[in-house]
Amino acid sequence: MDRRMFVAAAAVLCLSPAMAQEKVKLVNVVELSGAGATAGTNWKNGIDIAVAEINAKGGILGRQIEIVHYDTQTNPGNTRAAVQRAIDEGTYAVLGPVFSGPIGASMQISQRAEIAQIVGGEAAGLTKQGNPYLFRTSLSQSAAMPKIAAYLQNDVKAKTVAVVWVNNDFGKGGRDAILPELEKRGIKVVADVSTEQGQADFASDAIKVKNANADAVFVYLNEEESARFLRAAKQQGVDKPMVGETTLLGAKVIELAGEAANGVKGHVGLSIDAPVPAFQEFGKKFQQRFNYASDHNGLKGYMAVYMVKWATEKQKKFDKKGLADTLRGARITPKDEPGIMIETKIEQNGDLDRESFLAEVVAGKQVIKQTLPMINP
Amino acid sequence: MAEFIAYLIAGLATGAIYALAAIGFTLVWQTSQTINFAQGEFVMLPAILILALVKLAGAPFWLAAVLGVALFIALFGWGFKITIVDPMIRHGVLPLAIATMALAIIMKEGAKDGFSAEAQSFPSLLPAQTLSFMGISISLQHIAIIVVACVAIGGLQWFVTRTRTGRQMQAAAQNPGVALILGIPVARMVMLTFLINAGLAALASVLISPIYLAKFSNGEVIGLFAFIAAIVGGFNQVRGALAGGLIVGVIDSLAAAYVSTSYRLAVPLVLLVIIILVKPEGLFGRKEERRV
Question: Cα-flanking dihedrals φ and ψ of residue B81, to 5°?
């Protein structure tokens, strides 16, 4: 082989698919604008931290991760198109979205392609559809609502409650999950206030809640709407305990609602303020890189990538279908994979079980008051 | 009754914002005979500019507010007229209306990509407290919005009807040809109208952003409701825009309270259809005839 042929052969080798495959592609389909921008941006940033960490340590099974983010604009149609595009482009797994409605609209596409879709949604109905390729990164509403209802009964001592919910898949799922739990505990719902996704003016809803004169208010809205409602409630002089789930006590809600967030209580699945050193360490990394505090969605995005890493290393190969098979029914501990941060049990239907927390917003900061155990350890 | 009054006041506060924006439709209509479809974005952007100056330039809020409003008036009062209205109006009102649609998209996407896609908190000039009066709790911020907006609109009405410059503005709007013959500096009066429009939009932005939070998409709702308000009140009268804004705000609030949050947007639209069918010039509008 003369010198010119050697150079040409080397060039061909460098450009060959074998070399290109040194990377593993992950596509994140997420809400970077529209009503879900706050949640989606946190999720994306959490993913970026995890990818940077994994790549810095040599990648997964020696391959660097190539991460691509597609903005769904919080639109179910765009989400479907983005998931299809991700699959056509050969993604190893689909990450996202975070909002339950777009997840419900797109999950069949990854199921048909037999590719794992790791999502941030909490609506109870998502994992009741028998999709073996869907995996959560947060507790389902079915797991969270009994804890909130018990909190309302035992800690808040509420006999009557006003329920404020957002009229989308997430909100409807939460409302449908909390109402039977409240009824079971003899807590009467005296106001059932439906609001719209992206709603800007909550004055009328706050007046309704105030006049209901309930012992407590259960707020189940997305992040920006939660902040607007809290502000409106303060303007209208609503002085009853505000109780909610992870979204109500998130860092972004606290930032947006300002003083109106003080005193808000509830259940949080994940929090950078929880007494888990790995969560707090993640919180510092996030703050350092993005100059604001991560909410639970940042943690979820981070964990999603580590779920992919753990399962791939467990199966010792890049097998898309095998990834889902490995995740299903798995129990991942921080000892096995430090990036998972907290012991996590993945149920057969994609639901998660792990410890969670009761928290309160005090002087503009989320303070964890109690750690709740796993439901089925 | 106390509950109804609370809804009424909340509606009047929101309506006052719609009125400020609706006056912008009226002013642009009177001077250019066209509709500024970027009016909602005109209300969205000042708050974003102020926050950008605070966050990116590190300016204190008061300085950022002064600079942000001044910058906005320069860009979207003077700049809007010079770069969009003047070149496009020569080709008719339809191209200008389409140009304002394009401007709305550019402003929205620019705010999203240049600043943030997420909502941002915007400081309120007043604390979120309530005043109790005869058993009715009233939000201090709502009262402030109503008072400030009414003073601004009242001041504008006084300026337009009671001052020499204001009357020249009216003359320039009603018949620019004759006004020019009478020695009125028509071009300057038209420019003044655009500056006032930008100023009112900036005021609306500062008043509403503490409640709605500053976000690139805020203009969609405000623009739609202000447009409805302008038609309901009368597109060619400032007092019509005021009345229209307040009516639409109150109807929206009562619809959310007594009909359904899901249908609250539909109720003002139904009102719009009724007004167009029954009184197309609006409740306080003047009938206009044009030769074509």
Answer: -70, -45
